[in-house]
Structures are given as structure tokens and as C-alpha cells.
Specification:
There is one protein chain. The chain is α+β, with helices and mostly antiparallel strands. The protein has one domain: Nucleoside diphosphate kinase-like domain (Alpha-Beta Plaits, 2-Layer Sandwich), CATH 3.30.70.141. It is built from 7 helices and 4 strands, in the order βααβααβααβα. The longest helix has 11 residues.
């Protein structure tokens, strides 16, 4: 099933010069980039993006981290894009992520793990709408 999902290269990935590597791995997997932009998340936008985590102990440090520098937002399209992207990036904790996954190869810790990716089609649709206007996406 053709899906769209969101990938974010987090501030640590941007600082470390990993944007091109993330894009290369997504494209090499046969996924199509239909939206791409670099931006600095505002606090309200970061809070909206991670709203499902509000009230958890890691919420405030996560918001501070995600607003600490520029991010790269990528809208990806492909068959079963959500699950394929999740497999490419690996588990949230880089210590548990297999080598060959983005987080397994480049992640430092649970927060500084290079990328964010939507964990479901519903979250993907919501997150894409937060970061991209429809006219910014190619068809």
C-alpha cells in the first residue's frame, strides 16, 4: 500500500553532517522523497509534534533538544513506507539497534539517535501536516 511518512534528521544528526547519509539510505531502499526542508523547530511546534508524550518525564528534555538547532524534515513516499522506514532506522535506543540501521550505526543515546520517524500511519499523517503544507509536497 502506498503511504507517506515523516522522517526528521534531529539536531544531533544535522550537527554531525548525517543528513546526506540519511537521505541516501532512504533513497537506496527505494523510498521517494516528496518533501524536504531544513528548519528550526519553535517550542510550540515541537510540543505539537511530540504531544503524545506530554506529561512524561522525558518530554521537557526532548523539547529542549529538538529546539536546540536546525532539523531536516523529510516526507517519504513508498509502499508500506511507515514500516519500511521504521526498519531502516532501528529501535529508539541505539544500544538495541542492529548495525546497518541508522540508529545502530550513528545513534549516541535514546534522545540523540539521529532521526525521528512516525510510528504509525495516523501519526505520520498528523506530523506531515504539522511540518508541510500540501503545496510543498510533490506528487
Amino acid at each position: 500500500m502506498l503511504e507517506r511518512t515523516l522522517v526528521i534528521v534531529k539536531p544531533d544528526g544535522v550537527r554531525r553532517g548525517l543528513v546526506g547519509e540519511v537521505l541516501r539510505r532512504l533513497e537506496r531502499a527505494g523510498l521517494r522523497i516528496v518533501g524536504l526542508k531544513m528548519l528550526h523547530l519553535s517550542r510550540p511546534l515541537a510540543e505539537s509534534l511530540y504531544a503524545q508524550h506530554r506529561g512524561k518525564e522525558f518530554f521537557e528534555p526532548l523539547i529542549e533538544f529538538m529546539t536546540s538547532g536546525p532539523i531536516v524534515a523529510i516526507c517519504i513516499e513508498g509502499d508500506n513506507a511507515v514500516s519500511r522506514v521504521r526498519a531502516l532506522i532501528g529501535p529508539t535506543n541505539p544500544a538495541e539497534a542492529p548495525k546497518g540501521t541508522i540508529r545502530g550505526d550513528f545513534g549516541s543515546n535514546v534522545r540523540e539517535n539521529v532521526v525521528h520517524a512516525a510510528d504509525s500511519l495516523q501519526h505520520a499523517q498528523r506530523e506531515i501536516a504539522l511540518l508541510f503544507r500540501e503545496e510543498e509536497l510533490i506528487s
